[in-house]
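Hi support team,

I'm filing this because I wasn't sure whether my run with iron/sulfur cluster finished correctly. The job status page said complete, but I'd like someone to confirm that the output block is well-formed before I use it downstream. Pasting the exact inputs I used:
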Amino acid sequence: AFTVGIDSGSTTTKGILLEGNTIVRRFLCPTSFRPAASIGEAWETLRAGLAEPPFLTLTGYGRQLVDFADKQVTEISCHGLGARLLLPEARTVIDIGGQDSKVIQLDEQGNLTDFLMNDKCAAGTGRFLDVISRTLGTQVEHLDDITEGVEPHPLTSMCTVFAESEVISLRSAGIAPEAILAGVINAMARRSAHFIARLSTQGPLLFTGGVSHCTTFRRMLAAHLNSEVFTHDDAQYAGAVGAALIGQRQRKRHG
Amino acid sequence: AFTVGIDSGSTTTKGILLEGNTIVRRFLCPTSFRPAASIGEAWETLRAGLAEPPFLTLTGYGRQLVDFADKQVTEISCHGLGARLLLPEARTVIDIGGQDSKVIQLDEQGNLTDFLMNDKCAAGTGRFLDVISRTLGTQVEHLDDITEGVEPHPLTSMCTVFAESEVISLRSAGIAPEAILAGVINAMARRSAHFIARLSTQGPLLFTGGVSHCTTFRRMLAAHLNSEVFTHDDAQYAGAVGAALIGQRQRKRHG
Ligand code: SF4
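And here is everything the job wrote out:
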């Protein structure tokens, strides 16, 4: 049977339609300060044309804003479960989204054993890359093209606000924007490596969330951790996948 | 004899000409990414017309950028000494500048016994008020006029970056800008109270640095600490005063 999982993040809303272990449909849109409407769109898109409405599980910060879901679950449990489907042997999951980051530890059975969460400081989240990219007149989507093979220029400030000023003064000192951007990604990757190490660096390590699409970031994170960093084309949907899996279990139990 | 103390901060450059315990001249200008030139201007202004050049002591983050000073001293020792001249009975000093904040503990003789420093996170510094004021189309200088007698609207985010987004969404939800600004000041005052409490809340407490000029902030800080918060018209010059005092000692010892 079909189930739907929707992950209402503060930056993007992600949803999937799942059948067994197969993702049948994907939905992704910017949340843009209208989380409830974004969840509604995701739901209509994912259930469209199905004979009966699939079991709907919501997760993410906006999950309590609508009342038509069958179930609501916290992000951490969904992410652990979703990661397991994407990479069954994963033991550590680092998820870096637009406005938070988390690291999750899984045991050999894939059960969640511990986690760390940051949603207080923009510096460890996608927002950092966003702000700095905009300051340099580009977008996160172009970071890989711009920084490929570029030697990173060192960045001193870790605070997003102070880094923004530093980047402006590096630019006026004539440092090339691509070297600054590579330096910014490198500084954030180093910080993320420390964040992961606070919990666990046991491999295999799966990298999920929006920032996982940045190949330069992933390469630098692997260098700082001195270990392989796996990702998956559907890495941004890990939370939604986990939510849909929880729906499957629930259905089996009751149905 | 005259001595000069110059405090080269990352936001403003402050300088004074001292004779005995009397501040004879004051100099203040925005550092604006040209710390060396700002120190030069301060020096020329403060020594102008004096028969012989006064002993010059530099402090602050830019103190090593020029080579014409007689002495260079770290900010913490200067701030402690300067605070003592402004309020001899002070036992705790909280200094909130444009890009850092520090709390200093003094013993009964006014000697520095301990301190805490933050220059890593913009949220605890004047930069926070700056960013949010600009977001709401005003300037830090007008915060007192705007927020006088205004009930603060609660603010959830402590990170400067997340607070900026929160403020924008509060505005579009129709919350009055003055209530938002009062809420922003209140949130930062609460944070500063926690910062102070990590070291010492023994009174009398002297509040120095640029942010000390914000009366609303001082009132809210006093409320969170549940104790009186003193300031001084020359509170922004505490570091420079301390530097000039160190120059006096040096001269006495050697001359
Ligand atoms: S102001 Fe800077 S260091 Fe502080 S919480 Fe925000 S991003 Fe992090």
